[in-house]
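Q: I have 141 residues here and want to know how they pack in 3D. Can you give me a structure?
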Amino acid sequence: SGISDQPLSDEETYQGALNRVRRAAMLISKADYWVGIEGGIEENEDEMSSFAWVVILSKDLIGKSRTGTFALPKPIADLIRQGKELGEADDIVFNRSNSKRDNGAVGILTGNVIDRIQLYEHAVILALLPFKNPDLFSSGT
């Protein structure tokens, strides 16, 4: 993604998703759409939260959206502050293995009411708005 393994801001996380979608378009030029997704964390005041950016690209349009944001518990935030990635911190705190490829932090924390895929689902749909309404968005490319 061309950014740090654990993005630490909204801007860095967005840049990671944008880099991913651009790289996908370079590697596979014959596609209708390319998608880049990047998860990140951000500290605000005394709280750390997690979210992801989705960027969808076509030859003519770009769509982007951010997932919902959720607070991380202090033990996980402390491990991230010590240099761990969110998935690694989850695995340590919850005694799991490779949870970032499974239900993710959101799935663990919500008891799978919302898993990682569901968290991304609305953001992907919202990032597709320019493709659903090209006449309204085409001047923004």
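Q: Anything worth noting?
A: Helices lie at 10-27, 74-81, 86-94, 104-110, 116-127, 129-132, 134-137. The mean pLDDT is 93.
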